Amino acid sequence: MSDLVFDLPDGTTVPVTVTRLLNAGYAGREQEEVAAHVAELAELGIPAPAVTPAMYPVAPYLAAQADSVPVQHGRTSGEAEWALVVAGPAPEDLLLTVACDHTDRELEVHGVAWSKNAGLDVLGRGAWRLVDVEDHLDELHLRAWVANEDGAEQLIQDAKLAALLAPRYWLDELAELLVPGTVLLSGTVAMLPGVDQFADRWRVELADASTGSTLELAYRVERMPEPIG
């Protein structure tokens, strides 16, 4: 389990003990484009899912509001996403926040579920109530930047939430799983070509132009010492 606290725009804080963590995959709203992406990944040796969209259970302790992510090697990278946090049983207890699924790309060729369980799911400290943004959810803007210690930030992901299946899709499809304590990550959007994803720092934001409000997270990627033995 993991204990998180979310700050809401009205000044209240909502504590959540994460007991179930789910990572959606291949969750683009245009599933024809998803199928083409699956074929591209297969050429790189990444196994295709049995169905799309896919869903991967992740160890709950990997949900973190962290400023650093420990990794074992240099081929790991983030994925900008939204996260649905089920803080209680009522509709107003459904929270939306920004997230970054830090994934082991070496393990991904052996199994996507394995790669998702090899790194943290970093979540923002701020959140919105889903009921407050659901009527304009598709217009929310998801962006991610990467940087190395000796360089400036580069934009690596940039899309509206209309590109992804909406939280309501998962609430309908997985109603029995979305009990209080559940956190569900949305799956990600395409990375921009020519940007090195294996970076030292990641920053992700989810912006609501209608209110001027932004949710943000940022973290360093920290290489662990080499194993002995």
UniProtKB/TrEMBL annotation:
Q: Which Pfam families match?
A: DUF2848 (PF11010)
Q: Which domain of life is it from?
A: Bacteria
**InterPro entries per record:** DUF2848, Fumarylacetoacetase_C_sf
What is the recorded name of this protein? Answer: DUF2848 domain-containing protein
